[in-house]
Write a structure and sequence with these properties.
With about 250 residues, the protein is α/β, with parallel strands linked by helices. The chain has one domain (about 5-250): TIM Barrel. Helices cover about 45% and strands about 15% of the residues. The chain is built from 10 helices and 8 strands. The protein has an 8-stranded parallel barrel, surrounded by 7 helices. Strand 2, helix 3 and strand 3 form a beta-alpha-beta unit. Helix 2 crosses helix 3, helix 2 packs parallel to helix 10 (about 235-250) and helix 7 packs parallel to helix 8.
Length: about 250
């Protein structure tokens, strides 16, 4: 399997360079809106498209991925909420294990179901320690996962959870406050986790402004993910991308 995307993520981390990913929910897209999003992402020099969601009730996932792949070279990474959210058309897969919860189905159970397809898919598989953090409001991911989120003010718990994920062999840690969160993952939490691991750290959920994206990146997030805010205001793509990538200029 191709290892290019993960290698790029680790190289960027070593160089202290920050990346920006736009989260695409296939249920909220049609051909026209997706075309506009791709054009904006190209202009803003977005680094990755993450495709998926806690619930995907339409059959647009594969078409969505094909559309993106046909119109841009920006890598497409699946961010699945269940084993059914898979397609060979993407470049890579975040193989999520919910290490912040104690639901065995999301730690390993659903992976057993999806393993044969994933093995044969040709996708670049990136094992990801997924940590849901309390964002101040119930979210789809916390409901679907049937697991309590990590307390936002308990940085030691988050730090130890991330460390355990890395030592168990996870290639990435993803801290997510969830779509529609009232507040993003705090800078303190990001900093503590970032300082405790050597693998790339992805942070998303509740980020609705360039300033929040900048502060999250500065605190130690290697990849910032924004979806819900961009669905409401497409102009944020350029502003958030500029805010995240501005830290790369300082590292030159």
């Amino acid at each position: 399997m191709n290892k290019g995307i993960y290698q790029n993520m680790t190289n960027e981390k070593l160089q202290k360079r920050k990346s920006f990913a736009v989260l695409v929910d296939p249920d909220k897209m049609n051909a026209e809106s997706l075309s506009q999003l791709i054009e904006l992402a190209e202009s803003a020099k977005v680094d990755y498209f993450f495709v998926g969601g806690s619930l995907v009730v339409s059959d647009y996932l594969e078409s969505c991925v094909e559309n993106i792949k046909s119109n841009t070279d920006i890598p497409v990474i699946l961010f699945p909420g269940s084993p059914s959210q898979l397609t060979r058309k993407a470049d890579a897969l975040l193989y999520l294990s919910l290490i912040s919860g104690r639901n065995p189905e999301l730690l390993i159970g659903q992976h057993v179901i999806s393993a044969p397809f994933v093995k044969q898919s040709g996708l670049e598989v990136m094992s990801t320690g997924y940590m849901v953090v309390d964002g101040g409001a119930p979210t789809t991911v916390s409901y679907i996962s049937n697991a309590s989120p990590l307390p936002s003010d308990k940085s030691d718990i988050a730090m130890c959870t991330a460390m355990a994920g890395e030592m168990l062999g996870m290639k990435l840690i993803y801290m997510d406050a969830g779509s529609g969160a009232r507040r993003p993952v705090s800078a303190e939490l990001i900093q503590r986790v970032s300082q405790s691991i050597n693998i790339p750290l992805i942070v998303g959920g509740g980020i609705v402004s360039p300033e929040q994206a900048y502060q999250s990146s500065k605190a130690g997030a290697d990849i910032i993910v924004v979806g819900n805010a961009i669905e409401k205001d497409r102009s944020l793509i350029m502003d958030i991308s500029n805010a995240v990538h501005s830290l790369n200029l300082a590292s030159i």
